[in-house]
Amino acid sequence: MIAEEMNVKTLDQQKRSEQIDQLLNELDIRRGLRRKVFYLYPNTFRTLHSTLEAAEDFDGLIQLHSVQAMHSGKNEGRQVIYFNEELSYNARLILQEVIDDYWACCLCFQNGFTKQAQAIMRSTVELLTQLYYLKYLNESGSVVSDSWALGTRGIEKLTDKIAVVGKMPSLKKSGLAARLTFLYDKLCTSTHSRKDRLVAENLPRAERAKDMPSFEPLEILYTRGLLCSVLDLELRMIQQYFDEEPETIWVDQLRSIFRNMLTVLGRMQTCIQSAEKGYIIHREHIALSTGKQILYSITLEKKLELPGRKKLKLNHREAKEFQDKLENRLVKDIE
């Protein structure tokens, strides 16, 4: 009897599993676009996934570290600790949210939701700005003066907070403050739905939104450059935050996680540096069969620049060759 019940249960579980697999297949979206970007830019997406996978142990470690950090220093021996007043507690909430947002951003990006991916990264900039603002308040013991820390409001007056944290010596000296302002401004164009960042402008549709919009390499490269730049900036901000955290038995492991993440992301340095100079592609050459070398750049506004001193003169055949080679470059992945 028991064996028969177990057999029936196993059959039911197998049927249920098949139904779930069928549902996963039915509800999958933009498989065609995802296949195309994975085919053209495999190293880009492998690098992004590998970077985030390096944080696999983060959740457990940050919880252990924050508990020990809250019971050290000025709180040592205290019987009652108010979590909202503690920087380590607020940092744990913020950083766990940021790591989650990174994965959400990656999933949006690989499915062609580029504007949405950029909007998520804007949220991570806001969260880390809030963290550093609380760190600034904590130095004077006034964390509770911020409505976010008390849980009564969302993040308010962000531009003012960016201005405040930008003057903190640790961020100013490392150059992170200037990067923060520049990248936040770029991300705002997507969140505020500026016309040139709308999906219909950057990924014109020939099919249903669920399926596959027309593929536009420049939009993929723009998003890649922006996201990798923001990720690089924020990982350095997080690393710097932990460098100044109280010493616990867990903090060295947390520091190691973000060092490893930055090492993996280092494969994207060329596109990171280009994006922070305001370019998708910065000062590259295309060699024509006639022997001409054309120096060119493409700005984040997707405008072609030919920075040579002399005005470029190409015949029809050379212009066509330049166009073809430029199009091939746009679908070239990182090495």
Describe the structure.
This protein has 335 residues and is mainly alpha-helical. α4 (58-70) runs antiparallel to α13 (251-265). It has a three-stranded antiparallel sheet. 30% of the residues are buried. It folds into two domains: 31-276; 279-330, no CATH class. It has helices at 2-26, 31-40, 42-53, 58-70, 87-110, 114-138, 147-150, 158-166, 169-174, 176-191, 199-202, 217-243, 251-265, 269-276, 316-330, and strands at 279-287, 293-299, 304-305.
Short description:
This protein has a three-stranded antiparallel beta sheet with strand order 1-2-3.
List the keywords.
single chain, 335 residues, mainly alpha, 2 domains, 3-stranded antiparallel sheet, 15 helices
Largest sheet: 3 strands, antiparallel
Whole-number tally of structural domains: 2
Radius of gyration: 24 Å
What is the mean predicted local confidence, pLDDT?
87
Principal-axes shape call: globular
Topology record:
Blueprint: H1 2-26, H2 31-40, H3 42-53, H4 58-70, H5 87-110, H6 114-138, H7 147-150, H8 158-166, H9 169-174, H10 176-191, H11 199-202, H12 217-243, H13 251-265, H14 269-276, E1 279-287, E2 293-299, E3 304-305, H15 316-330
Antiparallel strand pairs: 1-2, 2-3
